Amino acid sequence: MRVLLKASLDTERSNEAIRNGTLGKLIQESVEQIKPEAAYFTAEDGNRTALLVFDLQDVSQMPAISEPFFLNLGAKISYTPLMNLDDVQKGLSQLGR
Fold first, then answer.
1. How far apart are CA 88 and CA 97, in angstroms?
2. Calpha distance 11→27 (Å, rounded)
3. Spatial separation of the C-alpha atoms in residues 65 and 56, rounded to whole Å
């Protein structure tokens, strides 16, 4: 299932990760693990935020994906299912008329 992972990083914890040189490594390792089709980084509500679109094969992957963000950066995480145009058209075709 295609999902959007949004990780809002705690400012103090991510500042420390920048100072000690671990933020870039953590992001690189996460991207290598997740293999997103798209990865964006921005500021949202005053927090550094990562937006990763990827295929979640099984919900049992969520702890392995989320915990590095929780443990190292005090992140708030959300997963949102996504559809592309083909998915929407397939879903609409299944509506009874």
1. 16
2. 15
3. 10
